[in-house]
Amino acid sequence: MLSRRIMSRSVTWASVRTRRYLSTPPPPPPPPPPKTPSPHAGFYTTLLPSMIPIALLGSAIYLGLEMWRSGLAHEKAMLEAKEQLKQIEADIATELKLQQAVDERRNPVQESSEKPKWRLW
After folding, report:
1. Which among 50, 74, 54 has a CA at the least distance from the CA of 62?
2. Which residue among 35, 63, 103, 113 is least enclosed by CB atoms within 10 Å?
3. Alpha carbon distance 64, 71 (integer Å)
4. Cα–Cα dist 77/82, whole Å
């Protein structure tokens, strides 16, 4: 009984150790069937390339018009600021004239022939 177990093990080991090779390789798997493009893919492959130049042109026109509008708005703001500045300068000039007239009425100008004594030189 013991010898049968040993023999059966040797047979199994012998069968594991020896490799059996096929005389011809197995045939290659069949090629996959060609995929039919989906309707969405067809739609985007025809639409997207033609839309790129249109999108670039539209973006360029929009940015150009936006810069032009910004320049005009800046120019308008500068003109309004200049007008306000002229108005403020005119108001200041009239206030100075009025102040000088009031000061002349209160304190008439006295011309003195004396030199000021506070100067050291």
Report:
1. 54
2. 113
3. 11
4. 9
Secondary structure string (H, E, C) spanning the chain: CHHHHHHHHHHHHHHHHCCCCCCCCCCCCCCCCCCCCCHHHHHHHHHHHHHHHHHHHHHHHHHHHHHHHHHHHHHHHHHHHHHHHHHHHHHHHHHHHHHHHHHHHHCCCCCCCCCCCCCCC
d(CA 58, CA 52): 10
Q: Sorting pLDDT into bands at 50, 70 and 90, what band is 6?
A: low
pTM greater than 0.90: no
